[in-house]
Model the fold of this input.
Amino acid sequence: MLRGLTVYTYSNWGYIQMQARDKDLTDLDVAIIGAGHNGLTCAAYLARAGLKVALFERRGIAGGAAVTEEFHPGFRNSTASYTVSLLHPKILRELRLAEHGLRVLERPLQNYLPLPQGGGLRMGPTLEATRRAVAAHSPRDAERLSAFHAQLETAVTLLKGLLLKTPPTDLRRFADLWSLLSTGRGFRALPLESQRTVHEVFTRSAGDLLDGWFESEGIKAAYGFDAIVGNYASPYTPGSAYVLLHHAFGEVNGKRGIWGHAIGGMGAITQAIAREAQAHGARIELEAPVRQVIVERGRAQALELEDGRIVRARILAANVNPRFLYLSLLPAAHVPEPIRERMQRYRCGSASFRMNVALSELPRLDGSGALGSDLHRSGILFSPSLAYMDRAHADARLAGMSREPVVEMLIPSTVDDSLAPPGRHVASLFCQHFAPTLPDGRSWHAARDAAANLIIDTVNRHAPNFRASILGHSALSPLDLEEKFGLPSGDIFHGSLGLDQLWGARPLWGHGDYRTGIDGLYLCGSGAHPGGGVSGLPGHNCAREILQDQRR
Done:
């Protein structure tokens, strides 16, 4: 490649300007491993502060798991991450994402849950609308719905205050001890009943929590789904109530608890962040995988790329799964044995299977009414009860995949006609549970088609025209997610969201402040606080810590 040449790479969601290799890669302030959304966010903030930043991405497209790609001729969709809510409004505002073309539409109906007896349960778009829908199934549950939301909101409000803060990691330091005490004061200031709710959310299973509130299976399933999204667990697994809460942190267009569609797919988010980073001089190199982090004299000094180049920088940041960072990218001699042992036990594997489907017509859902109704613009949940989810988890533990998987279907082409030809549609299918490792040594490459057929059959039971309308599809097993996106065991969150891997213990206690224990090396991906989802917060918070360290 010629020196000084500017390269434009077409990624199906727009042109992102990428600079040529070997051009002005000396005297870097910061080199970032991975151009996923958190790496891009970190780069944007650092570049805005005047630092010279470059990102090195293994794939031929920037954006990590939040990208939009063509998967069948004429059809494109969000390849992996598929819906918007957790993207933090501070990042939206400060990185000028709307000015860079990002537009997010709220779902006109949040969720729709087909029920075994026919018809279904409509969730949203307002709490009052949900209450009316629930009343048709259980007047008692409808009466309790507002109180349930109020209790959840108490926990959300308390925890949202921690999202932008760096967790304490060493209580021998006064600043960390003071931070912990300040957090405790926030909890202590809550009314006693609210304290009980927060404690319950952190310690109980989602199933136990929901069984205590509601009697109808539909409403429990509608809320319980959020407890197992990207979480290889039964809704009755202790701690799963927190995962439900994690998905309640978000907002769209200033409306809390709402989910939406990014016009142009999830790649529109990373495209907008990349534009802001590049506007301040950040460079993005594609097809530039990193072989290892070079550590000299106890400090991270450079990246060695797979093509043999050495990229030196004063600061390195990693937007990768922490297990991959500590066990694969860092030389073993520079990782203390206790850290290696703990990272070998770091829990990864969300048991997720991801499909995109090109459709000749919209699915004819049971009781859906007219084609193109608001049901088709919602999240459609094929998961009628907590017991159904529990069986799906048990199946995966025993046989590697669920005989009746949990499936969420979105049809973003109903609100975004740029994704499919006229009169055609694309559907996103996000599915649980599919074990990261199959029993008896079977390969996911060989089992992928069988899993895809189970998923299609599941949808077809509720929309009998679904299979016949399929023009083409893509399918990503847990192994495909690992190989394509660098997600060990296919973990979409860069590590399970259990209490042992949250806040100051993410990725492990003592290194929860975005610093890795190796001078000059930081962690800016979802394996750091506050965890997974397209929020941009790990990247934002890591950039803040890097800048604070530079001022010391």
The first strand starts at residue 6 and ends at 10. The chain has two domains: 6-69+268-346+494-551, 83-146+217-238+249-260+349-490.
